[in-house]
Amino acid sequence: MEVILREDVDKLGSRGQVVKVADGYARNFLLPKRLAVLATAANKKIVEQERLAHLRREATERSAAEELAKLDPQPDEETELAEMRAAMMRAEKTIAEISELTGWNASLIKVRAFRARRKLQKLFADLKRKERS
After folding, report:
1. How far out from the chain centre does Cα 52 lie?
2. Pairing between strand 18-20 and 36-38?
3. Is the pLDDT of residue 24 over 90?
4. CA distances (Å), 6 to each of 14, 31, 38, 50, 69, in order?
5. Which residue has the higher pLDDT, 31 or 129?
6. DSSP 3-state assignment of 3?
7. 11, 30, 92, 103: most buried by Cβ count inside 10 Å?
8. Domain ranges within the chain, ordered by starting residue
9. Does domain 2-39 fall into CATH 3.40.5.10?
10. Rounded distance, CA 75 to CA 54, Å?
11. Contact predicate 52/16, CB 8 Å
């Protein structure tokens, strides 16, 4: 059975790839967990739209981090968090690697990255409003 992967799956493929798998593996694992969808023309279009949305979201977060760096060149905890989030988004560092570097546990890293992301989004929205004014 051919499926389109919606997420990266170890030893199978990455997001957006069309892969051929056993019927049972697709039916019992990939499809119920929404890791893949059947490879039809309509689903290919939907997955392509999801991929483009994911790329736009990454680009927005990256540009927000760059704008924040321009506004506040002083290295502080928030800047470090933004850099951590950007590194994770670019897949340069995994949460485990960041945990090892900082000495924080994985859940603390996820919480701080979420808060930093939310703060970056707010700053980015404020910048857009200032540009319009």
Report:
1. 12
2. unpaired
3. yes
4. 8, 10, 10, 8, 32
5. 31
6. strand
7. 30
8. 2-39, 55-132
9. yes
10. 29
11. no
pLDDT tens digits for 5-21? 888 888 999 888 899 99
Reference 118, options 128, 130, 126, 106; nearest CA is 126
| Rg of the chain over all Cα atoms, to the nearest angstrom | 19
> What average pLDDT does the structure give for the chain?
80
Strand partners, 13: 9
> What's the pLDDT tens digit per position in 71-113?
655 555 666 666 666 666 655 667 777 777 777 788 887 888 7
Q: How many residues does the chain have?
A: 133
Of the pLDDT bands very low, low, confident and very high (cuts 50, 70, 90), residue 130 is confident
Q: What are phi and psi of 3, to 5 degrees?
A: -135, 160
Question: Tokens 């603390």 identify what position?
Answer: 108
